[in-house]
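Q&A log
Question type: sequence-to-structure
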Amino acid sequence: MLETSIYGWLCKNVRGNDTNRIRTKTALTKLGSDISHDAIEIRKALLALRADGKIEYSTGSHGEPISAFITVILPKAEIPAHVSAWKAVLDRSGLQNEDLVTLESIGCNLAGFDKGDMERLLAGLVRLRQEQTQVYGQCDFNVSAAYLLGSSKLLSTLDFRSLRAFGIAIDQFPARAPYVVVGGNANSPAAVVLVENPIAFETAVKSSAADRYLFVCTFGFGLSAAANDYGNQLAGIIETGRAVVLNRSGGSVMSMDQVLGHGSIHFWGDLDIAGIQIFERIAKHVPSIQLSNLYRPMIDAIKSSNSRHPYVAAVGKNGQTMFEATREDSNNLLSQCHQWAVDQEIVTVTQIELLAGAVLVST
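Response status: OK
Response body:
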């Protein structure tokens, strides 16, 4: 039926438009090419849709559209059965009204759940809220399986904003076990160097500097290195204070508290804005940390157009923007890399062996 086709076309072409309007001239032209070449039939169909209350526009003496726009009255979206069922479970739960409002959006994720499943899920969420401090720090897979219908994945599929508003501190349950790898002298290091990137870490561990210093890095999660955001992972691990420490060189096994409690702890990352942001994040939790003298050859390199690069997508640095640092050493380093950047992999083995134990004095 022509009216149905035209109404469907109008709905499609105004979706995402806050006013639900389309220019009359545009509509008539495109309807003529997309739906029907008969202008009289299109006008009749529009009049019928107007009479049914599905569209609004002004007409002339012969019924022709004369207003600049046609307003489309979109059909009300049908509420899925599982969404209605979840709302009914909430309404019967006896929870406070603010909790009901907060949890309502979770129903969108519950297709295929029956009423009993929903009731048991809600009971699990309530119990988790009450007991969450007892399981802080546990992996979200384990927490989910223990509280939510035996499913390890269910907690991570629910709306995090709703869970937080409900009072569940979802950020206290890491998505997977965080690992930190250390390498070098784990027994009596002269200094501990936190390294942003694993390739630079490997170079350092294989150098003779590893006889004197302990190098620390994170290498992503599981077998995936799809997100090479290692520095931010390291900062996040230090912020939460939770990690499994693995010794790349063998020998002593230690805790993160032991690693971060060393009297001489340094940071070595890329000479770019993001690297300094990572240093600032770590410094909030380890105020004694200082910038490694391994930045020295990078500062020298950034002065040459042959050994520096701009903040562009091709080098993985698009989106880095200047920020206001809180430390003097951070600001000094930012002044070196506000326009150009240098990656820490430019530092050679010889330079690592000469500079790894010292602190960057000035820039």
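Response note: The CA atoms of residues 182 and 247 lie 5 Å apart.
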